[in-house]
Amino acid sequence: MMMKLDLIDVGRATMLLLRDESGQDTIEYALVAALVGLAAVISVKGVSNKIGNTFNAIGNGLTNAI
């Protein structure tokens, strides 16, 4: 009798776990944060190329002025 009661409790706990959606918000926030981080990395790479090109142009201009 005790074994049957334990199996019912495990089955009920499993069903409650499957219906629980409280972690869904956390996963969504993590995905949004990952996308924002990816966008930041991509934009920084683009900006760094532009800054590098600007410094090279300034350096070339100074070299040619001498």
Descriptive account of the structure:
By secondary structure, the chain is mainly α. The protein has a domain at 31-66. The protein is 94% helix and 0% strand. The protein contains two helices and no strands. The longest helix is centred in the middle third of the chain and has 44 residues, at 22-65. It is rod-shaped. The relative contact order is 0.05.
Task: Tag the structure with descriptive keywords.
66 residues; mainly alpha; 94% helix
Protein topology:
Layout: H1 2-19, H2 22-65
> Mean pLDDT across all residues, rounded?
81
Number of strands: 0
The H-and-E topology, N to C, reads as HH
Characterize the biggest β-sheet. Answer: none
> Which band does the percent of strand residues land in?
under 5%
Tally of individual helices: 2
Structural class: mainly alpha
Distance between the termini: 97 Å
Describe the structure concisely.
This protein has two helices and no strands. With 66 residues, it is mostly helical.
